[in-house]
Design a protein that fits this description.
Helices cover 38% and strands 9% of the residues. The radius of gyration is 27 Å and the shape is globular. It contains nine helices and six strands, in the order H-H-H-H-H-E-H-H-H-H-E-E-E-E-E. The strands form three sheets. The protein has a two-stranded parallel ribbon with strand order 1-2. Strand 3 and strand 4 form a beta hairpin.
């Protein structure tokens, strides 16, 4: 505040201050709307642009670290102490919890992220192997995937159910209660979704390289409710809490085109591609 009781700095003309300060407009001074902020290029991308480059090309490692590769190709230890350290690390570092501020929901998330660490390592090794041998992949597309809950299924597949039960017991929870914290993935609603999930599961069991492609329904298919004797549809907000079983990749995008038709690839006779002007 200035000596005269005003809140305007003497370095700013009063007319400018009145014009740009919300709620302070004189009768003869028009209100000035602030200029919208625009995102600008900074950091390494700015240096690349100034050097004449495209500004978006990420740099790759100049050499291969043998320790990093050895870690990526070795399974995470399966003993209780290692698992407990991983769960506690996620509780304190990923979700910023202490023993006094955690609950069963946080225990589930920390345990699920700990299990996900192991799944991602196997995922990377599997993809690396398929790329190395040039394996063909099956891509199964469906509007629904009724996959159920993942945490308990992953523990059984990793054969680590007893170990995680011991770790959760040490921090004061029953494994069964933690399993119940997970919500069903609202990606399907009926026979079509269950069948699609079975197909993908069968491909994994038969060691066929395959992917399932579908839609990530933000509010699920729908949640059925009965009000005054009538069925009503409500959103299924299954993504209100962090979802450990998805891996966002905002850097990977593909244009989705509508309409069009299939045409034969002139270079590869048995290959077709989709052409559309939309």
């Amino acid at each position: 505040m200035n000596q005269d009781g005003s809140y305007f700095s003497m370095t700013i003309p009063p007319s400018t201050a009145k014009a740009t300060t919300p709620g302070v407009h004189g009768p003869d001074v028009p209100s000035v709307q602030p200029t919208p902020l625009k995102r600008v290029v900074s950091g390494a991308a700015l240096k690349e642009l100034l050097a004449g480059g495209g500004g978006t090309q990420a740099k790759t490692p100049s050499c291969e670290d043998t320790e990093f590769r050895a870690y990526a190709h070795s399974e995470i230890a399966r003993d209780v102490a290692t698992i407990k350290n991983s769960v506690v690390m996620h509780l304190t570092a990923t979700f910023l919890r202490t023993p006094a501020s955690m609950d069963s929901g946080h225990a589930y998330l920390a345990s699920a992220f700990s299990v996900r660490d192991r799944l991602l390592q196997r995922w990377n090794l599997t993809n690396e192997y398929h790329d190395k041998i040039g394996a063909k992949r099956v891509y199964y597309m469906s509007l629904e995937f009724l996959i159920g809950r993942t945490f308990d299924n992953a523990l059984l597949a990793l054969q680590l159910r007893d170990e995680y039960a011991k770790v959760l017991g040490d921090v004061g929870f029953r494994l069964e209660d933690i399993i119940d914290e997970e919500r069903d993935a609202a990606l399907g609603n009926g026979g079509l979704g269950r069948l699609a999930a079975c197909y993908v599961d069968s491909m994994a069991c038969m060691n066929y390289p395959g992917w399932g492609y579908g839609l990530r329904y933000r509010y699920g298919m729908f949640q059925q409710q009965i009000l005054n004797g009538y069925q009503v549809e409500a959103p299924d907000c299954w993504l209100d809490s962090p979802n450990p079983w998805e891996f966002p990749r905002p850097d990977v995008t593909y244009p989705v085109k509508f309409y069009g038709h299939l045409v034969r690839d002139p270079e590869v006779p048995y290959r077709y591609k989709w052409e559309s002007d939309v």
